Amino acid sequence: MTAVAFKVKSKNGQQILKDLTSDSTVGELKSFLCSISDIGFERICVLCGYPPKPLDISDNEKKLCDIGLKTGETLIVEEKCVPTSTPTPQETSSPPKKKPVENGVASHETIGPCRPGILMKKVVPSDNSCLFTSIGFVLNGNVDTSVHTLMRQIIAMEVASDLDTYSEAMLGKPNAEYCTWIQQPSSWGGAIEVAILSRFYGLEMAVVDTLNAIINRFGEDKNYGQRVFLLFDGVHYDPLYLEQSDGGIQTVFPAEDMDIYREAEQLAHEAKSSRQFTDLNKFTLKCMVCDKFLTGQAEAQKHAKETMHMSFGEV
What we know:
- By secondary structure, this protein is α+β, with helices and mostly antiparallel strands.
- It is built from nine helices and 17 strands.
- The chain folds into three domains: 3-79, Ubiquitin-like (UB roll) (Roll); 118-273, Cathepsin B, Chain A; 284-314, no CATH class.
- The protein has helices at residues 26-37, 89-93, 130-140, 148-160, 168-171, 175-182, 191-201, 258-273, 296-307; strands spanning 3-10, 13-21, 44-48, 53-54, 74-79, 101-102, 105-106, 118-121, 204-209, 214-218, 226-232, 237-243, 249-250, 253-254, 284-287, 293-295, 312-314.
- The strands form four sheets. Strands 8, 9, 10, 11, 12, 13 and 14 form a seven-stranded mixed sheet that branches. It has a five-stranded mixed sheet with strand order 2-1-5-3-4, covered by helices on one side.
- The longest helix is centred in the last third of the chain and has 16 residues, at 258-273.
- It starts with a strand and ends with a strand.
- Residues 82-115 and 276-281 have low confidence and may be disordered.
- This is Ubiquitin thioesterase OTU.
- Hydrolase that can remove conjugated ubiquitin from proteins and may therefore play an important regulatory role at the level of protein turnover by preventing degradation.
């Protein structure tokens, strides 16, 4: 039997729980968490891990060691949204509220004080078009690896129409050369492409950078009414979404919703602390022209300068 300590996050702030052992039961844990969070025993929900996932606390007799809890874990305590079984006269006379739809994705608006869900990462293929697939997911709610073709065309048309803004100094290559390059399936997207697609779709795109534990906001100065989140680990992009208890998802959020923004910030910090990012000096690339394997960004840049090969793939 060993003592355990947990960092607990709830609506009442952050606290350290140190009064339990590995042999303590789930019921004892729930009792402590209820007292900390002011949430009823039957309505408490505990999230753990990265990204945070619901912890199975249904069996009150199980020991903490049996459900995989280890000392030092961060526990997020939330309140389950339990529908009222007997509606009030006002509820029966009022028409049901419809869930708003944003870009084809139901927002699953929740009535009452309960938080609507947890922020999750959707893993998309590492096929050099992960940025475009991720943006397609937050727009439409599904993984479609073919959307990159249209998005690459949109970017090329925008760049070709503004030679002053999109100069060689900005693009790293002549305007016309860039327009040809970006339409190739092997070409990666980055900040320039995110900025263009943010304007095209009229959405703020918040890129959660786990390498530096910051959020880069594209379209922030445009005062767009809606925001989407993308996760970037230094090389690869994945979309973020809010998972509801009913299985639904939300990918587009009101720009004024700072609760979800702060949750994304917390996710960035936790990902960095657990080193869930790609070290640009060590990751492996493959030259798609000559099939040479290269280690790190600097080696890839050197190879490109020496050979003029500009097409690289993730390994």
